[in-house]
Amino acid sequence: MKVMKTRMAWLKFWPGRHRGVRVGVVAAAVAACVLGAPPAAMASGADFYKGCRNSDVSCQDGVRVTGTIGPFNRCGTAGSSVGSTEVCIRYDGDVVYVKDGAADGHSAIAEITTAKGVPYRYCRNPYGHGTWAKCDFNWPEKAWKEFSGGRILDYNNGHVLYLGGFNNN
Protein backbone atom coordinates (compact mmCIF):
# COMPACT_ATOMS: atom_id res chain seq x y z
CA MET A 1 0.00 0.00 0.00
CA LYS A 2 2.85 2.38 0.71
CA VAL A 3 4.08 2.14 -2.90
CA MET A 4 0.59 2.86 -4.20
CA LYS A 5 0.29 5.95 -1.97
CA THR A 6 3.66 7.22 -3.19
CA ARG A 7 2.63 6.78 -6.82
CA MET A 8 -0.69 8.48 -6.23
CA ALA A 9 1.08 11.40 -4.50
CA TRP A 10 3.36 11.69 -7.55
CA LEU A 11 0.30 11.87 -9.80
CA LYS A 12 -1.20 14.57 -7.57
CA PHE A 13 1.79 16.87 -8.07
CA TRP A 14 2.37 15.99 -11.70
CA PRO A 15 2.11 19.07 -13.98
CA GLY A 16 -1.16 19.11 -15.92
CA ARG A 17 -2.71 16.77 -13.40
CA HIS A 18 -6.10 16.61 -14.95
CA ARG A 19 -8.33 13.76 -13.90
CA GLY A 20 -8.30 12.32 -17.43
CA VAL A 21 -4.50 12.24 -17.49
CA ARG A 22 -4.34 10.44 -14.15
CA VAL A 23 -6.98 7.93 -15.24
CA GLY A 24 -5.05 7.36 -18.47
CA VAL A 25 -1.78 6.75 -16.63
CA VAL A 26 -3.46 4.36 -14.19
CA ALA A 27 -5.22 2.54 -17.05
CA ALA A 28 -1.91 2.18 -18.90
CA ALA A 29 -0.25 0.76 -15.77
CA VAL A 30 -3.08 -1.76 -15.28
CA ALA A 31 -2.92 -2.78 -18.95
CA ALA A 32 0.83 -3.32 -18.70
CA CYS A 33 0.32 -5.61 -15.70
CA VAL A 34 -2.45 -7.60 -17.39
CA LEU A 35 -0.66 -7.93 -20.72
CA GLY A 36 2.58 -8.84 -18.99
CA ALA A 37 0.98 -11.79 -17.20
CA PRO A 38 1.39 -15.25 -18.74
CA PRO A 39 -1.55 -16.56 -20.77
CA ALA A 40 -3.99 -18.80 -18.92
CA ALA A 41 -2.85 -21.88 -20.88
CA MET A 42 0.73 -21.22 -19.86
CA ALA A 43 -0.26 -20.82 -16.23
CA SER A 44 -1.97 -24.23 -16.18
CA GLY A 45 -0.61 -27.41 -14.62
CA ALA A 46 1.50 -28.00 -17.73
CA ASP A 47 3.92 -25.27 -16.65
CA PHE A 48 6.04 -27.60 -14.50
CA TYR A 49 9.38 -26.78 -16.12
CA LYS A 50 10.85 -23.50 -17.36
CA GLY A 51 11.24 -24.94 -20.87
CA CYS A 52 7.45 -25.38 -21.10
CA ARG A 53 7.12 -21.67 -21.80
CA ASN A 54 8.99 -21.96 -25.12
CA SER A 55 7.07 -22.18 -28.38
CA ASP A 56 9.11 -25.18 -29.55
CA VAL A 57 8.14 -27.27 -26.50
CA SER A 58 4.94 -29.16 -25.68
CA CYS A 59 4.37 -30.08 -22.02
CA GLN A 60 1.59 -32.22 -20.61
CA ASP A 61 0.64 -33.46 -17.20
CA GLY A 62 -0.27 -37.06 -17.91
CA VAL A 63 -3.65 -38.53 -17.07
CA ARG A 64 -3.40 -41.15 -14.33
CA VAL A 65 -4.09 -44.64 -15.67
CA THR A 66 -4.51 -47.99 -13.92
CA GLY A 67 -4.89 -51.60 -14.96
CA THR A 68 -3.67 -52.97 -18.27
CA ILE A 69 -2.16 -50.16 -20.29
CA GLY A 70 -0.33 -52.08 -23.04
CA PRO A 71 0.46 -53.18 -25.63
CA PHE A 72 3.52 -51.04 -26.24
CA ASN A 73 5.81 -50.73 -29.22
CA ARG A 74 8.87 -49.50 -27.29
CA CYS A 75 9.74 -49.32 -23.59
CA GLY A 76 12.77 -48.35 -21.58
CA THR A 77 13.66 -47.82 -17.94
CA ALA A 78 16.03 -45.12 -16.75
CA GLY A 79 18.46 -45.94 -13.96
CA SER A 80 18.01 -45.27 -10.28
CA SER A 81 20.06 -42.06 -10.58
CA VAL A 82 17.09 -40.50 -12.39
CA GLY A 83 14.25 -42.11 -10.44
CA SER A 84 13.97 -45.51 -12.18
CA THR A 85 11.44 -43.92 -14.53
CA GLU A 86 9.84 -46.29 -17.04
CA VAL A 87 8.73 -44.85 -20.39
CA CYS A 88 6.62 -46.75 -22.93
CA ILE A 89 5.60 -45.61 -26.39
CA ARG A 90 2.50 -46.71 -28.28
CA TYR A 91 2.73 -45.76 -31.94
CA ASP A 92 -0.99 -45.78 -32.76
CA GLY A 93 -2.27 -42.58 -31.24
CA ASP A 94 1.20 -41.15 -30.49
CA VAL A 95 0.85 -42.10 -26.84
CA VAL A 96 3.50 -41.92 -24.12
CA TYR A 97 3.21 -43.69 -20.76
CA VAL A 98 5.39 -42.73 -17.80
CA LYS A 99 5.79 -44.77 -14.61
CA ASP A 100 7.29 -43.21 -11.50
CA GLY A 101 9.74 -45.79 -10.21
CA ALA A 102 11.03 -44.06 -7.08
CA ALA A 103 9.51 -42.76 -3.86
CA ASP A 104 11.74 -39.69 -3.95
CA GLY A 105 9.20 -36.85 -3.97
CA HIS A 106 10.01 -35.88 -7.58
CA SER A 107 7.75 -36.21 -10.61
CA ALA A 108 8.73 -38.73 -13.27
CA ILE A 109 9.07 -37.36 -16.80
CA ALA A 110 9.40 -38.59 -20.37
CA GLU A 111 11.06 -36.50 -23.04
CA ILE A 112 10.37 -37.11 -26.75
CA THR A 113 12.58 -35.24 -29.22
CA THR A 114 12.32 -35.00 -33.00
CA ALA A 115 13.74 -32.88 -35.80
CA LYS A 116 10.29 -32.29 -37.35
CA GLY A 117 7.29 -30.52 -35.88
CA VAL A 118 7.55 -29.60 -32.20
CA PRO A 119 11.11 -30.65 -31.33
CA TYR A 120 10.57 -31.26 -27.58
CA ARG A 121 7.64 -32.97 -25.88
CA TYR A 122 7.46 -33.64 -22.14
CA CYS A 123 5.01 -35.91 -20.35
CA ARG A 124 5.00 -35.59 -16.56
CA ASN A 125 3.67 -38.11 -14.07
CA PRO A 126 2.89 -36.07 -10.93
CA TYR A 127 1.02 -38.92 -9.17
CA GLY A 128 3.86 -40.53 -7.23
CA HIS A 129 5.74 -43.78 -6.84
CA GLY A 130 4.32 -46.82 -8.62
CA THR A 131 1.79 -44.91 -10.72
CA TRP A 132 1.43 -44.59 -14.50
CA ALA A 133 0.45 -41.47 -16.44
CA LYS A 134 -0.53 -41.22 -20.11
CA CYS A 135 0.03 -38.33 -22.53
CA ASP A 136 -1.38 -38.05 -26.05
CA PHE A 137 0.85 -36.22 -28.51
CA ASN A 138 0.61 -35.62 -32.24
CA TRP A 139 4.04 -36.07 -33.79
CA PRO A 140 5.17 -36.49 -37.41
CA GLU A 141 4.82 -40.17 -38.35
CA LYS A 142 7.92 -40.60 -40.54
CA ALA A 143 10.33 -38.49 -38.49
CA TRP A 144 13.00 -40.04 -36.27
CA LYS A 145 12.15 -39.64 -32.59
CA GLU A 146 14.17 -40.30 -29.46
CA PHE A 147 12.80 -40.84 -25.98
CA SER A 148 14.33 -40.35 -22.56
CA GLY A 149 13.14 -40.87 -19.01
CA GLY A 150 13.96 -39.22 -15.73
CA ARG A 151 12.61 -36.83 -13.15
CA ILE A 152 11.90 -33.16 -12.59
CA LEU A 153 13.94 -31.86 -9.67
CA ASP A 154 12.43 -28.36 -9.58
CA TYR A 155 11.09 -25.73 -11.97
CA ASN A 156 14.55 -25.05 -13.43
CA ASN A 157 16.10 -28.52 -13.35
CA GLY A 158 15.40 -32.02 -14.51
CA HIS A 159 17.52 -35.02 -15.36
CA VAL A 160 16.75 -37.53 -18.11
CA LEU A 161 18.61 -40.45 -19.66
CA TYR A 162 18.34 -41.57 -23.29
CA LEU A 163 16.27 -44.76 -23.63
CA GLY A 164 15.86 -45.31 -27.37
CA GLY A 165 14.66 -44.12 -30.74
CA PHE A 166 11.97 -44.98 -33.27
CA ASN A 167 10.43 -43.90 -36.59
CA ASN A 168 7.97 -44.98 -39.30
CA ASN A 169 5.19 -45.32 -36.79
UniProtKB/TrEMBL annotation:
<protein>
    <recommendedName>
        <fullName>Secreted protein</fullName>
    </recommendedName>
</protein>
<keyword id="KW-0732">Signal</keyword>
<feature type="signal peptide">
    <location>
        <begin position="1"/>
        <end position="43"/>
    </location>
</feature>
